Amino acid sequence: MSRTRTAGLPGWLYAPAALGAAFVLLPLVAIVAKVDWANFLDLITSESSRAALALSLRTSAASTALCVLIGVPMALVLARTTFPGQRILRSLVLLPLVLPPVVGGLALLYTFGRRGLLGHTLEVLDIRIAFSTIAVVLAQTFVSLPFLVVSLEGSLRTAGDRYETVAASLGARPTTVLRRITLPLVLPGLLAGAVLSFARAMGEFGATITFAGSLQGVTRTLPLEIYLQRESDPDAAVALALVLVVVAVLVIAWLRPERAAR
Amino acid sequence: MSRTRTAGLPGWLYAPAALGAAFVLLPLVAIVAKVDWANFLDLITSESSRAALALSLRTSAASTALCVLIGVPMALVLARTTFPGQRILRSLVLLPLVLPPVVGGLALLYTFGRRGLLGHTLEVLDIRIAFSTIAVVLAQTFVSLPFLVVSLEGSLRTAGDRYETVAASLGARPTTVLRRITLPLVLPGLLAGAVLSFARAMGEFGATITFAGSLQGVTRTLPLEIYLQRESDPDAAVALALVLVVVAVLVIAWLRPERAAR
Amino acid sequence: MSLEFTATVADRGLEVAFEVATGETLALLGPNGAGKSTVLSVIAGLLRPDTGRVVLDDRTLVATDERVDLAPHLREVALLAQEPLLFPHLSVRENVAFGPRSRGRSRTEARAAADAWLDRVGAAELGDRKPGEVSGGQAQRIAVARALAAEPHLLLLDEPMAALDVAVTPALRQTLRQVLADRTTVLVTHDVLDALLLADRVLVIDEGRVVEEGRSGEVLAQPRSAFAARLAGLNLLHGTWRGDHAVLPDGSQVHGIVAGPEPAVGDLVVATFRPHAVAVYLERPVGSPRNVFATTIDDLEPLGDLIRVRAGQLSADVTAHSVAALDLVLGTAAQLTVKATEVAIYRL
Amino acid sequence: MSLEFTATVADRGLEVAFEVATGETLALLGPNGAGKSTVLSVIAGLLRPDTGRVVLDDRTLVATDERVDLAPHLREVALLAQEPLLFPHLSVRENVAFGPRSRGRSRTEARAAADAWLDRVGAAELGDRKPGEVSGGQAQRIAVARALAAEPHLLLLDEPMAALDVAVTPALRQTLRQVLADRTTVLVTHDVLDALLLADRVLVIDEGRVVEEGRSGEVLAQPRSAFAARLAGLNLLHGTWRGDHAVLPDGSQVHGIVAGPEPAVGDLVVATFRPHAVAVYLERPVGSPRNVFATTIDDLEPLGDLIRVRAGQLSADVTAHSVAALDLVLGTAAQLTVKATEVAIYRL
Amino acid sequence: GSDDSGSTKEKTLTVFAAASLTGTFTELGKKFEADHPGVKVTFNFAGSSDLVSQITEGAPADVFASADTKNMDKLAAADLDGQEPENFASNTLEIVTPPGNPEKIATFADLARKGVDLVICAPEVPCGSAARTVASSAGVTLKPVSEEQSVKDVLAKVAAGEAEAGLVYVTDVKAAGDTVDGIVFPESSSAVNLYPITTVKDSKNADLAAAFVQLVLGSVGQGVLSAAGFARP
Ligand SMILES: Nc1ncnc2c1ncn2[C@@H]1O[C@H](COP(=O)(O)OP(=O)(O)OP(=O)(O)O)[C@@H](O)[C@H]1O
Ligand SMILES: Nc1ncnc2c1ncn2[C@@H]1O[C@H](COP(=O)(O)OP(=O)(O)OP(=O)(O)O)[C@@H](O)[C@H]1O
Ligand SMILES: [Mg+2]
Ligand SMILES: [Mg+2]
């Protein structure tokens, strides 16, 4: 087959790339080596493990969806408009990344908690967030939102706006431009951001335990389960961590088909 | 001044964007409201706080540099070559994101610890990694590497390789193409990735406490200090978290000048 | 007055004002970097001028003093930019259907319109390809189809005939002639034939200033600016078609080659030929040139190393040596001849 | 034999073979989508052919049967693609200096070379701008400068004169003539004048196949393919310059307008003019046309609605009506005239 | 006067202690440094199970103080204890409520009342197993809305008013100051949590380590600990 070819990468580049891959993969191998394979199946199919896994998948999917819904508009506003204070806002949006998750959880508690900033409002509306699955989703969204915003904003800037102006001059309303031109063009960046968000939500621990608590089937996600198991049964914890890894890899590989370069 | 203009964003987009901004900023306000301003200065200028902040800045800078050094080659290999197993590798590289940081720390311990995979090798070479500042840097690198790789890979795909082929046809070696064309073109994406990595490293807690321990001045970074302060003095913890946030915002704003769209 | 344009763009050194009547086609000519594309960007709303005012029909598109600045998509102006910029993720057909879809046509209608336009630019068989899989000239044709399919109030075309091969150029020029006939258009071109055939009026810009303006034939026949002089070189005669030749108002006949659709007997036509092709004789010669105009020399004007001989409506470019040999002076009676093969006849 | 090319690219329907001698310039002609740019991509190494073999001097660039496939940067081949694709983050000067820098020249040398090339394409004052700040035509000139500055063993130019204004085209054509004179080049163009003036040989491709090949003048004077016939239409006479006219081997004189650098007395020159511009007389006329060739008609050939009259080396295109009126048949003695202003004379 | 290390060379004593000992041990460390010039005490505060796995992976610890006996047993099982572990403090559970005690909780049985949002520790962690023990011995069935991973998490929920009651250690209530109210209850005595301490086997400062353990077990140490609310073992 005829094939267009790229400029090619310098050969020396493969050395640090391999080093990097090893750095990420070796610890994984180390974990696999620690797994007590004899009892593996029992460990991971216990009721509490299955409940935690199911909860994690549901909440991570929900929080990823939420991230896309509010993160895409944020990235667009940051990348395609200019307004005073934009630079500060852009940095502030990154905060949940910097905040140790436990502090992030506290901050959420101070905001949505009964005596928090919005506590009174929520009480009037008879909405109870604490100790509910919604709290888990909120905590996960809070910590994973910056991932989507930052990586999508980078893609939007790299892609530029030439096609958008062409589309507008053909009479497309901004909404049409967004739907038919902008989003399809930055799809790789959007997918990357969504994958990052999903992965971060799957691994989220600190903010969840602080803000949502830990009750089996309601708020105890897989990381919380792993953490608990670690106290009583480190082997089970390792086995569960492996499950988390495998599930995440599968979801990510499915979510992220190798997209042919345009 | 004359100004090129973009297609413009649909008006309704500002609603979810504002909602998102509020969602991120409100918890911050809530935390600020909780700070005991009377004792704020004392709290944050204590010797242990200053040591922790200095350590955090040093290690985060080092791990960001390490991420760039090994993450850029990885992103390039993933974006610009095809090889069997690439899809799986791409998902595996995301693992540290999914792994709850504490499990990540355990994995690192199982790899670089005395009884770990490389323990013997390192012992022979008389290299002690665990519980040193190096361990902090490794833990931070492990958790923040995927950020750089994923957001840079997205940018590389969005940018495409047309300019690279032009450069090659003008006689530029792959290294030259990389240095003078590819990297400058994806600079926004690279910066975004580096900022994400830095922020993630600044906030890193679980892997650090597990793999590196919490020794003042050596491995006790700001998030660890916050965790400890929380044991004895929750006010101090909140004040410190605020310091972390402010420092991170400053570093990020400085690292990430508003780049004029090309 | 349909389009009213006044704008300055300081950092590109542009300061231009002009008007285009409804249904009229204006050709923008000028050297590279003169500011032609900049003018189109301002009209399309992709560039906000420092000062200026653009009014289309009754709608103010931009008015810096009134702080009016309509969004591009509300202007009903379609721009064919200098680069094709086809949307890489849409098929060729979807690219062309994009304009109709955006203006509210149904999916089926838009696809039908797209196919029709693709056919007219000779790219019918490319509909299912992605823009990355077509050649440079094919991309240009598709971009033309996309701009035309948008059916805007005002059409802005930046070098629509660039990159096209000699086989397709005449056909596309005919298509554009038909399409532009009753449409308000601003056309940027480097080709004098396009300016002449497609445009009613021309505007010559140089270094951001209008240096010449007028009806196409007039500006090109009697250029005053250096750039227009370069472009110029065509004689233009209006007449009536008689089946195999045109008759001028003074009764003389013009034979030539019909370009484009065959005119019907009685149609108004224009005959064009280059002054270079006009020969000057003192007596009527016998030979293949079938167009002979008996005239008197009005003017002799140096034009570089040539002499432009003006006689009535006609110009002939001859070498200084010929002028000397034939002893041409003002008032000399002369026979101007031009071969029929040199004369292109177009239906108006 | 300097460049040896054989390749098939199935999904673009290409199957082409040709050779280019060292120092020779080959013009690739053909309709849009014929495969011209594809050929250049294969040579430059941007597209790997399904089967094929490209050898430059002694180096095999690709050979699918031997599994040789040299990386683009090792081929010493510079490609001016159909789109300018200037590096957006580098200044115009740095863009042009990129080739020399990549081939190991020092920073100062490379900048000097860049400035020299920018000057030659008439873009000297743009050096400090970013590519986003220049006009379409300016970008095209800069891209030409960038390709030329790379000083490769083989130069591939895809429509180098696209988007240029009429004022700069002749000058750039002259520049290219000088540059390409002793350089191995493959040039894609839609302009017959470029093919004629810049290329030694032409290759006409249509639908991925070579349909015609030969020395430029010959192919264009006696086209056999439909596409070449469209392109054609030029008489070519070789002669020696005598200060104000050329003398042909048979002693007859040719007057015309010198295009490009003035030839010195005794230089070899070529005079070109279009068959359209040639008039046929039965007796020698007195008038401004100063070139009169006494010949005998060899051939009469229908060419669309015209008749091509061949007489010796010359062709004249006249209408069927003229042929009838003058009663031209094979063997008729005729005077073929062409105005000096219609003849372009180039130094060889 | 245990000044056998009066050398000129600065020595560092590394103490691995449960995070709940942060305040008290930091204070004791300062006292130790004052008593032993040229010695610097550094602490590694973390969860007890973290500390054990770090020590087994070769962390440079001289002293280990655990918040429960289970983790101390793990260290002993790895044969890394330098001397026989000794209990130096104990802790019992106490009810916490938001300031003002909105649900008017008075007894342990009130925790099972309908409408009281209760948070306790998960059974896997020491405070949770203690809560379970107390509940079963008191014959009360607790229905918590959340089983937290640590006492701090319980405290945070109660302090924020999110939960109306929680079960934490006496020392935690004391440290939390007036952000919560504490209610002592008699049933707590059925689950006493013990804090053991030992030196670590491979310690390079075995003498200093033993001295530190003595400081903790001695009157000075006990004074500091009881000021923070710890009971004697
Ligand atoms: N990336 C591609 N994938 C598949 N087909 C392609 C691709 N690029 C071009 N083609 C097709 O291959 C054929 C040859 O294209 P090529 O670009 O070589 O034409 P060209 O002779 O350069 O035409 P032009 O004069 O328009 O530039 C065309 O039919 C075109 O549609
Ligand atoms: N983005 C820009 N910023 C600043 N100057 C620009 C920009 N784009 C173009 N220019 C300059 O403005 C002037 C007008 O450019 P414009 O593109 O309008 O020229 P043009 O008449 O379309 O030329 P061409 O025939 O080459 O397309 C030129 O001198 C050009 O260098
Ligand atoms: Mg332009
Ligand atoms: Mg091409």
From TrEMBL, chains A, B:
Keywords, in A-Z order: Cell membrane, Membrane, Molybdenum, Sulfate transport, Transmembrane, Transmembrane helix, Transport
Xref: Pfam families: BPD_transp_1 (PF00528)
CDD domains: TM_PBP2
Superkingdom of origin: Bacteria
First-listed, main subcellular location of the protein, grouped into a coarse class: membrane
GO cellular component: plasma membrane
Stored InterPro entries: MetI-like (IPR000515), MetI-like_sf (IPR035906), ModB_ABC (IPR011867), NifC_ABC_porter (IPR006469), Sulph_transpt2 (IPR005667)
Assembly, per entry: The complex is composed of two ATP-binding proteins (CysA), two transmembrane proteins (CysT and CysW) and a solute-binding protein (CysP).
Protein name: Molybdenum transport system permease
Gene label: modB
From TrEMBL, chains C, D:
Highest taxon of source: Bacteria
InterPro entries (UniProt xref): AAA+_ATPase, ABC_SmlMolc_Importer, ABC_transporter-like_ATP-bd, ABC_transporter-like_CS, Mo/tungstate-bd_C_term_dom, P-loop_NTPase, Transp-assoc_OB_typ1
MF GO annotations: ATP binding; ATP hydrolysis activity
UniProt keyword annotations, A-Z: ATP-binding, Nucleotide-binding, Transport
Domain ABC transporter span(s) in chain numbering: 1-232
Residues annotated as transmembrane: none
Protein name: ABC transporter ATP-binding protein
Organism of origin: Nocardioides marmoriginsengisoli
